[in-house]
Specification:
By secondary structure, this protein is mainly alpha-helical. The protein has helices at 10-32, 37-108.
Length: 109
């Protein structure tokens, strides 16, 4: 009567092997895909790192800016002080000149 075991043709063997490979590949791809939690964890890690860096750097930046503006104010005040000292010397000479002139005029009259 007929043979119970049928011989598979080479095309059928390739097709069944290909189907098996496809299912293995699909299983491995399914295992390799992530659910998205890794992205959120990485984002959270980056945000925490940025926050820590800002907490460490902002006081330093603030202090540098504060020192810079204070030194500018000190320099401006020192310049004004130097100008006032020179003006004081000039006015002192004028006062001395007026005193001498006044003494000469007093002796004449």
């Amino acid at each position: 009567m007929g043979e119970k075991t049928k011989k598979k043709s080479p095309e059928q063997k390739n097709t069944s092997t290909t189907a098996k490979e496809k299912s293995e590949l699909a299983d491995s791809v399914h295992e390799a895909t992530y659910d998205g939690t890794a992205d959120w964890q990485f984002l959270l890690l980056v945000m925490i790192s940025i926050a820590i860096a800002l907490l460490l750097l902002l006081p330093k930046i603030y202090l540098r800016n504060s020192i810079y503006y204070e030194s500018r104010a000190i320099d401006r005040l020192q310049t004004q002080y130097g100008a006032l000292v020179e003006e004081n010397k000039l006015l002192s000479r004028k006062v001395e000149g007026l005193k001498v002139k006044n003494q000469i005029l007093d002796t004449i009259f």
